[in-house]
Design goal:
With about 400 residues, this protein is of the alpha/beta class. The chain folds into two domains: about 100 residues, no CATH class; about 290 residues, Purple Acid Phosphatase, chain A, domain 2 (4-Layer Sandwich), CATH 3.60.21. The protein is built from eleven helices and 15 strands. The mean pLDDT is about 90. It binds fe (ii) ion. Fe (ii) ion binds next to loops.
């Protein structure tokens, strides 16, 4: 029985640390504060473990309650861990029991490729990245082509079969070789998509600005490549320069403005939200009231409204705008997904709830990509995602 108490308390302690991490990383606080919070939380986790081992040795017991009674700190913190652990365990089972794939997702196929193997060379640069490469099961150099078919109510007839390639979170840092990202581009182009939509965290390091033409400028879609920025893009201090370089490569920035695509009488209205890191979407008019909508498209019922948002947390913002589809990234699927348990951390106010996958929010479909890379080249059971979403109105 005592082992069960220790297990639940351990879950509670790790859960409290994970919640604090997720909340800190869901904010727009400066990066150095968030990095400091990582170190503090990592330290607390480690120190707590060492402290408990010391307590068990000092008291020469594995029994839970005698350790609780030993001092005031234990009397407060261990019961707190116990209650939290029970809460996290019950919540985990409840979510597993309640989860159903949305009925609007009518098919999903995934195929994985090992790009490092295909290219026959190490794709990792720098000591840390090479260390990650040595971890068994690291999938950071894989590509998972994720092909999804979504049913959209009242989809305009001329948009039947619309193919959207969704890419997110490239995190160009130089730790992963450029040739890996060129393979991402090739994979996306082979989908022969109508649209390519990128949901932020395009580039982390200024040294990679020269990669933009090759990596992003080579993306090809019938009706354009659209993007929003994410929190890591703020590492490029000159926002105007970054947007200029992306625009010069043929990408279209949609943060805080509506962009329309006409296909056989139907309108696709695309906009972007980079909140809370960039303010452009604040105060955005609804499409029907915007200049693009007033110009004639707003009165047309044949409008498909799509939101690109870096963070899935913006779904509440999206509610008022009545989007048909919201695409997001940022959470990376948690990057490490434990067998059975799943992800532990995700930088979201909602923790791991929207770490990756497809969700229905009112009538809106939201797809959260696992993303392509990260500032740390480690992915376990969470391969980089190159998404192809095909829309159908068929019921
Ligand atoms: Fe990211």
């Amino acid at each position: 029985m005592d082992l069960a108490w220790w297990f639940v308390a351990g879950v509670g302690h790790l859960g409290i640390c994970a919640v604090a991490f997720n909340q800190a990383h869901a904010t727009s606080f400066p990066r150095r504060w968030r990095k400091m919070s990582e170190k503090i939380l990592g330290g607390i986790t480690l120190i707590f473990g060492i402290y408990l081992i010391w307590q068990l040795i000092a008291l020469a017991t594995l029994r839970f309650w005698p350790v609780v009674q030993n001092n005031i700190a234990n009397r407060i913190y261990l019961p707190l861990c116990l209650v939290s652990g029970l809460y996290f365990i019950v919540r985990w089972f409840y979510r597993k029991w309640r989860y159903r794939r949305p009925a609007q997702v009518i098919s999903r196929t995934v195929s994985k490729r090992d790009i490092q193997k295909e290219l026959g060379k190490s794709l990792y640069h720098g000591a840390t990245a090479r260390l990650f490469n040595a971890i068994p099961g690291n999938e950071a150099h894989m590509i998972a082509s994720e092909q999804l078919t979504f049913r959209v109510a009242d989809l305009p007839k001329s948009l039947e079969g619309l193919k959207i390639c969704h890419l997110s979170d490239y995190h160009l840092t130089g730790q992963l070789d450029r040739s890996y990202f060129e393979q991402i581009t090739n994979t996306a182009n082979e989908f022969n998509p109508d649209l390519i939509l990128i949901t932020g965290d395009l580039i982390d390091e200024a040294d990679c600005l020269d990669w933009i033409d090759e990596v992003y400028g080579s993306l090809s879609a019938r009706h354009g490549v659209f993007y929003v920025l994410g929190n890591h893009d703020r590492r490029i201090k000159n926002e105007a320069l970054l947007r200029e370089r992306l625009d010069a490569s043929g990408l279209v920035g949609v943060a805080g403005n509506w962009h329309t695509v006409q296909i056989d009488g139907a309108t696709i209205a695309i906009t972007g939200n980079e909140l809370p890191w960039y303010p452009h979407a604040a105060g955005l008019k609804r499409f029907e009231e915007s200049s693009a909508g007033v110009a004639g498209n707003g009165a047309n019922n044949d409008v498909l409204k799509i939101l690109l948002s870096h963070s899935p947390d913006q779904f509440n913002w999206a509610r008022d705008y009545q989007f048909d589809l919201m695409l997001a990234g940022h959470t990376h699927g948690g990057q490490i997904q434990l067998p059975i348990i799943g992800p532990i951390v995700a930088p979201s106010k909602f923790g791991i709830l929207y770490a990756s996958g497809t969700f229905v929010i009112d009538k809106m479909l939201m797809h959260v990509s696992r993303g392509i890379s990260g500032d740390k080249c480690i992915r376990i059971n969470c391969p980089p995602e190159v998404g192809l979403i095909t829309l159908t109105g068929d019921s």
